[in-house]
């Protein structure tokens, strides 16, 4: 189902009536920010899915105790 030109005009007219002409730029700006944040979140999620294994290994290595090795024991 596609949205035609007249449906978009009708939706914009209803938004204009509800919010008024003064608040319309603010509402549209907030809507645009929301769309941008959504797209950025989707990109981050795709990137994190591929790299999610590496941080888990690094975190595990950072939390495991490290054995102290002063070198070979010398008797003498």
UniProtKB/TrEMBL annotation:
Signal peptide: none annotated. Pfam families: TatA_B_E (PF02416). The keyword Magnesium does not apply. Its main location: membrane. Keywords: Cell membrane, Membrane, Protein transport, Translocation, Transmembrane, Transmembrane helix, Transport. It is a single-pass membrane protein. It comes from the Bacteria. Residues 49-76 are annotated as: Disordered. The keyword Nucleotide-binding does not apply. It is found in: Cell membrane. The chain crosses the membrane at residues 6-24. Part of the twin-arginine translocation (Tat) system that transports large folded proteins containing a characteristic twin-arginine motif in their signal peptide across membranes. TatA could form the protein-conducting channel of the Tat system. NCBIfam families: tatAE. Belongs to the TatA/E family. PANTHER family: SEC-INDEPENDENT PROTEIN TRANSLOCASE PROTEIN TATA. The Tat system comprises two distinct complexes: a TatABC complex, containing multiple copies of TatA, TatB and TatC subunits, and a separate TatA complex, containing only TatA subunits. Substrates initially bind to the TatABC complex, which probably triggers association of the separate TatA complex to form the active translocon. This is Sec-independent protein translocase protein TatA. The lineage of its organism: Bacteria, Pseudomonadati, Pseudomonadota, Alphaproteobacteria, Geminicoccales.
């Amino acid at each position: 189902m596609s949205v035609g030109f007249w449906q978009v005009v009708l939706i914009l007219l209803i938004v204009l009536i509800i919010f008024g002409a003064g608040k319309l730029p603010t509402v549209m700006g907030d809507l645009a920010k929301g769309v941008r944040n959504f797209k950025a979140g989707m990109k981050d999620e795709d990137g994190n899915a591929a790299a999610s294994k590496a941080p888990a290994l690094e975190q595990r290595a950072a939390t495991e105790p490290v054995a102290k090795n002063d070198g070979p024991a010398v008797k003498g």
